[in-house]
Amino acid sequence: VASTVCSQWLAGATAAGLAGVGGIAAAGAGSGLAIASRVGPTELPQTVAGFHSLVGAAAVATAVGEFLHLAPLGLLTPVSIGAIVAATYLGAITTTGSLVAFGKLNGALGSAPVSLPKRNLVNALLSAVSLWAAARMMRSPTLAVGRAALAACTAASLFVGAHATLAIGGADVPVVITCLNSASGWALCAEGFMLSSTLLTTVGALIGFSGALLTQDMCVAMNRDIGSVLFKPLKTNEGGSCEVKSYAPHTETSADALAERLLSAKSVVVVPGYGLAVAKAQYAVAEIASKLRARGVKAQFAIHPVAGRMPGQLNVLLAEAGVPYDIV
């Protein structure tokens, strides 16, 4: 929004034009607020994925619009063509990938991996269409050639985003969300080059790098690498026999016995999971921690990097319940 308003103002937009941009921004903000106000803590991950798809769609629309603006004027350069194709490729992948992630998290799609045979080869060949589109447009930067190349790039990238995300199991979707977040940032960065906007380039780079670092942290926490998550998903048992394993004996307890142990402990560490969000138990757990601290017990919370269904979900829940940040 800030980049659009600034560019319009610097271009000498009239008051009516700026008012129109403001009206569109207000409508979008109102729609986002209306959607977010109906979202509970457990629906937060799929809501984020859904909003990511809008970021990708906006990147594709901006890239196509910029091409349709520059091509008839003969102002296309190799840099602008590269930025247009990059924004289209990354934006399209973010759009369909986020929609599939939304479907998996919301229960509309199954969590089991689904893909075509030799899926990595298929995705690689379709991704190469973007390189072909850029080369074709650079050789012949005309409106007719550009339309066909961008259409092919968009269609191939939309398929890659959906196909790559469908092939990833539901347990790895939180990592996929951070990957798509990073991709949306790089799409925004490409838009910055395309529109000569320092603001878009800077913000896009921040989002891209932070999403990539968060993805790496989550993979390390799962003792996996990003390649195994994106290209070698865990295999599912397709109706085969399941070996029964004998695990170490477990220890049962009761609420009264647990309360006694908590009161007699010197230090207590609570490790919450997604069940805390489903049960809406953050308030009860926060109250328990508060009472323990009042009795001199050192109560703390430890959150695993991939706990919940998206990064930071449990941090938000604990903050909502009034848990002090310094004990998390």
What can you tell me about this protein's structure?
The protein is globular. The two termini are 35 Å apart. It contains 13 helices and 2 strands; from the N terminus they run ααααααααααβααβα. It is mainly alpha-helical and 328 residues long. A two-stranded parallel ribbon has the order 1-2. α3 runs parallel beside α7, α4 (78-106) runs antiparallel to α5 (119-139) and α5 packs antiparallel against α6 (143-166). The model has no long low-confidence stretch (mean pLDDT 88).
Concise overview:
This protein is mainly α and 328 residues long.
Overall helicity: 55-70%
> Structural class from helices and strands?
mainly alpha
Main-sheet strand order equals 1-2
**Model regions low in confidence, pLDDT < 50 over at least 5 residues:** none
What is the makeup of the main sheet?
2 strands, parallel
Secondary structure tally: strands: 2
The Cα radius of gyration reads: 24 Å
> What string, H for helix and E for strand, traces the elements in order?
HHHHHHHHHHEHHEH
Instruction: Provide the residue-averaged pLDDT.
Output: 88
Cα separation of the termini? 35 Å
Percent strand: under 5%
Attribute tags:
328 residues, mainly alpha, 2 strands, single chain, two-stranded parallel sheet, 13 helices
Question: How is this fold's topology laid out?
Answer:
Layout: H1 2-10, H2 15-37, H3 44-70, H4 78-106, H5 119-139, H6 143-166, H7 173-195, H8 198-221, H9 226-231, H10 255-264, E1 267-270, H11 274-279, H12 282-294, E2 298-301, H13 313-320
Parallel strand pairs: 1-2
